[in-house]
Amino acid sequence: MRLDKFLVTTGCCTRSVAKKQVRAGAVSVNGVCPKSSDVNIDPETDTVTYCGKKVIYRKYTYIMLNKPEGYVSATEDGRDKTVLDLIPPEARTKGLFPCGRLDKNTLGLMLITDNGELGHKLLAPKSHVAKVYRFKSKFPVSEADAKRFESGLVLEDGYETKPALIELEGDGDEGLITLVEGKYHQIKRMLEALDNKITYLERLQFGPLTLDPALDRGEWRYLTEQEITELERHGGY
Predict the structure, then answer these.
(1) CB within 8 A of 187, min separation 6: which ones?
(2) pLDDT digits (tens, 9 = 90+) for 212-221
(3) One of 46, 77, 103, 212 is an active-site residue; which one?
(4) Which domains are present in the chain?
(5) What is the pTM of this model?
(6) d(CA 120, CA 67)
(7) Burial of 72 from C-beta contacts in 10 A (0-12 / 13-18 / 19+)
(8) In Å, what is the CA distance from 141 to each residue of 1, 84, 178?
(9) Is 145 a catalytic residue?
């Protein structure tokens, strides 16, 4: 792997900054400062330091994205921009994909990774990974409808949802919804089963991950070491 690619993948800096830092002598490989950032290294065996700190390499990439409206949750699409279009080319690794889906107009937390095994475990129905959403609805949700929601609803196609938690706020037309499954357009369809309609939906949590409030719409960052450890533990990986 090229040194500049390594520094980008590990979240140290951008490729352009990597070149500057290498030229400035702020990067070392096995105790030696290379003259160029395009030298090849072995990320598994070589020791790299960046600004005096050892860089920890992980086999997989884990990215938190604050999804904006208008992007589809896919690796590619013939008509619309995908969430991967928000990740700069130098940060994209082979096999990177969005773990789970958000509707085109749903906002908020997305996990993007190239760890297919962990992604499969987190999305498997038997894992019951909790996902928390902030919602707004066209009409207030009554206490009676909230109880129906929490008992599980039968959707228009006959599917019976698992019980879900709904916490009402304000006048009952907004609040938080927690699901442990992720059927197609599930929250929208559950509200429609109550003769209501979702007007705003944002995912705030996915398993142990919580959307970083410092991320504006469309922004992303690598997961911290602690977040990765918790995520892998949550997925039984």
Answers:
(1) 133, 135, 177, 179, 198, 201
(2) 999 999 999 9
(3) 103
(4) 3-54 (3.10.290.10), 62-125+217-234 (3.30.70.580), 130-206 (3.30.70.1560)
(5) 0.82
(6) 21
(7) buried
(8) 54, 35, 15
(9) no
